[in-house]
Amino acid sequence: MGSNSGLFARNRAVLRTRVSRHAYLGLAIACLSVFVATLLTAWLDHGRISLATLAAAQQQSPTLWLLDLMPLVFAFWGQYVSVVMASEAGAMVMDQTESLRARARYLEAHAAQLSHRDELTGLATRNALLAELERLLAAPDHGPAVVGLLVLDLDGFREINDAFGVSAGDDILRVVSRRLGRVMPDAALSARLEGDCFAVMLPGLRDRDQLTDLAAAATRTLSAPCTVGDNRLNLFASIGAASYPSDSLDAESLLGHAMAAMYQAKRAGGHFVLHEARTEPLDPQMLSLTAELRSAIDRDELLLFLQPIVTADTRRLVGAECLVRWQHPRRGLLPPGEFVPRAERSGLIVPLSDWVMREALTIAANLRACGQDLRLSVNVSRRALTEPGFADLMTRYLAERAIPADRLMLELTEQTLMSDEPAGRAVMGQLQAAGVGVAIDDFGTGHSQLAYLKSLPVAQIKIDKSFVSDVTTSSTDFAIVRALVELAHALDIQVVAEGIEQETQAQALAGIGCDLLQGYLIGRPMPVDAFRAWIEQPAQSHSSAG
């Protein structure tokens, strides 16, 4: 603004020292008026106009003496008007300039505030959190106190967005921010990192064990019912934590360790993990593939392969296991081992499981329409099993496709069953009541407790191929498999042998009463069209079981 005011001051100074256009105009008008008045006076007094009569009129008329002053008055008036107009115009321009500058300063301040404050929740942003954490760690007077960092990621938030809309999701994020503010210490700094991921910086802790108590407090306050429209939901979060100075000495690494612990918590099915030395930091390649996987689910880049399951005695086709593959645009067809563990670590296992379930039931409906009434087996992670409303979602998917519930078998690992979570047991009970079967996958490879077979609603166990491969050469493996078959039959549980690759294995297992067979000898995992062609091969003599 200083340069503009200087410019206007110089303009006014010029107008004061030079004759303006308005001054010339006023002078011309005044001179013309004096000349006309002199002509009229000479004509009226002498009856003619000449130089002598004009001079006489000027000498003898007091009125003309006054009119002779008009050129000076008009010239001054024109100059004054020019100065006033220039001053007013300058003032207006300066006022507008100042207004624009004030608006620009406001926008700059607002932008700076947005870069440090999340507009939706009012919490600090990721950059603001890191900046404050760096300042705190660099301060020479923060002493030996522990600085903790919690990272929280909501479980099932995408499903809430899909079911109730983005506006409801925004309301939930605001609820989370308010609840964190109530339960965390006054010195804490809460931030929204991105999406449904939050972080809390906790300076001045007694020790790192205090992080466990604060994580438990956050879990309790988040699990309180939250009203969304006419529905009441319970919020759950996977929480990871790291601390200074035991885990890291800089802000970026500390946040990376806390996020790695959070992903580890997600992989374990939720709850809380405190970072330890063996916890791996974030892998950029893993993050890249995780982002691609999220898009792949939305763009239907995933495929389901089917591996047939037949009866052990007659080799009659009764079902198939659904196995997911990823048709990556650059890396080609990826097996599940390339991306399912990443989905577990990143929390994408829930939407991935949901896609597999919907696709599997759609395939089952299409096969039924072609006369193949098969039971399809689908692997389910512990995280997906304990998602709120999982059992209701399965029954709805079955009803939408008009598929009987007993045509679906959910395969769970022993680790999932051994977790002994009340929520998981309740879901399995609901599934059993609805008619959906539950199978224990890779049975015998975990810390098996046979007591679980009588207390859990298990319809089927799948003996791991590590026992099947040596069943004809190892008397120990043969005895173990036979004992498992007899125990399962005593509990009215069906037995499936996985990994059958030789005819002698199939015959031995059929001889000890194994119910179903699955493996390369029967058929490899294949796309749906290839599976249909395999069914129609006359040499296979397959007839679907009702």
From TrEMBL:
Domain of life: Bacteria
Residue ranges of domain EAL in the record: 286-539
Any Pfam family matching the protein: EAL
Entry EC no(s): 2.7.7.65, 3.1.4.52
Ranges for domain GGDEF: 145-278
InterPro entries per UniProt: Cyclic-di-GMP_PDE-like (IPR050706), EAL_dom (IPR001633), EAL_sf (IPR035919), GGDEF_dom (IPR000160), Nucleotide_cyclase (IPR029787), Rev_trsase/Diguanyl_cyclase (IPR043128)
Positions of transmembrane segments: 21-44
GO MF, one annotated term: diguanylate cyclase activity
UniProt keywords, alphabetically: Hydrolase, Membrane, Nucleotidyltransferase, Transferase, Transmembrane, Transmembrane helix
PANTHER family: CYCLIC DI-GMP PHOSPHODIESTERASE PDED-RELATED, CYCLIC DI-GMP PHOSPHODIESTERASE PDEF
Alphabetized NCBIfam families for the sequence: GGDEF
Official protein name in the record: Bifunctional diguanylate cyclase/phosphodiesterase
